[in-house]
Write a structure and sequence with these properties.
Number of helices: 1
Largest sheet: 5 strands, antiparallel
Helix content: 10-25%
Number of strands: 16
Radius of gyration: 31 Å
């Protein structure tokens, strides 16, 4: 009977196989790292595109509303050529209709006793009181609404003067949009501010905002002489990725988006 002798691997063979294994593992790890970096870049690009599209939609929608049903004397659109530019837009919220003061105010801090449906108002809302005779008014902060009695209190903010019977109460929206490059210079943001409230972040990594205003005369300007002359607003936005591109190593990826919005509610239009 013959026995077959099994020989083990030599040291050289073990070294060669170990070397090959290291090469395979290193190659696999390199592919994984490259794919992972590429995936991160694609996620950042997707986030950037979502941010710039959402920002453009927000600005376009609000600009279209500028001047809608606002009382005489209120500025519907305010332009700031600050590079990045800033814009402030004012329009009626349409939650109040026919709300008027039906009792004389004994003093500027007195509650407003109103006729009409005030259910569209809430505590801590901003409202606008308007005297149609003098075509003047002012914003004030509501401290408390008494719905059954039809009373509006403004204890923390007395008015500048008493208003006569027949003065109107409006719920006016006012939004201001600008780029904040100061708080975190490495991550600029599109900010929105409602009245005098603290500005809030609307979208991250929006680096530039530019407006051009086409007037009814056909001329395009950086700042319109009067908002009523604005026919169209051209909006340009620039966004970038959260971090620099680690795959191609050429810095941040960026996207530009541009559109023109027709202003529908200003007087001359």
């Amino acid at each position: 009977m013959k026995f077959i002798q099994n020989k083990g691997m030599t040291v050289v063979e073990l070294l060669i196989s170990s070397f090959i294994s290291v090469i395979v593992i290193s190659a696999s790890l390199g592919v994984y790292i490259a794919q992972h970096k590429h995936m991160i870049v694609q996620e950042q690009v997707s986030d950037m595109q979502n941010s710039i599209r959402a920002s453009m939609e927000e600005l376009s929608t609000k600009i279209k509303m500028a001047g809608y049903n606002v009382p005489e004397g209120l500025v519907a659109l305010t332009a700031y050529n600050t590079n990045p530019d800033t814009i402030q837009l004012t329009f009626d919220s349409s939650v109040l209709e026919g709300v008027e003061i039906d009792h004389a105010m004994p003093q500027p801090s007195a509650e407003l006793r109103c006729s009409g449906d005030i259910s569209g108002l809430n505590d801590d809302d901003w409202a606008y009181i308007y005297d149609p005779t003098t075509q003047t008014g002012e914003f004030f902060l509501i401290s408390h609404v008494q719905y059954a009695a039809g009373h509006i209190q403004h204890n923390t903010m007395p008015l500048s003067h008493t208003y006569p019977i027949g003065s109107q109460i409006w719920k006016i929206n006012q939004y201001k949009y600008f780029i904040d490059k100061t708080t975190d210079p490495d991550h600029p943001k599109l900010m929105v501010q409602y009245f005098g409230d603290t500005p809030q972040i609307y979208a991250d990594n929006i680096t530039n905002l530019q407006f051009k205003y086409k007037l009814t005369s056909g001329v395009t300007v950086d700042v319109p002489p009067m908002p009523e002359m604005v026919k169209e607003v051209n909006i340009k936005l620039t966004a970038r990725t959260e971090r620099e591109d680690e795959v191609q190593s050429f810095g941040y990826r960026t996207r530009n988006l541009e559109t023109t919005v027709k202003v529908r509610n200003l007087a001359i239009n």
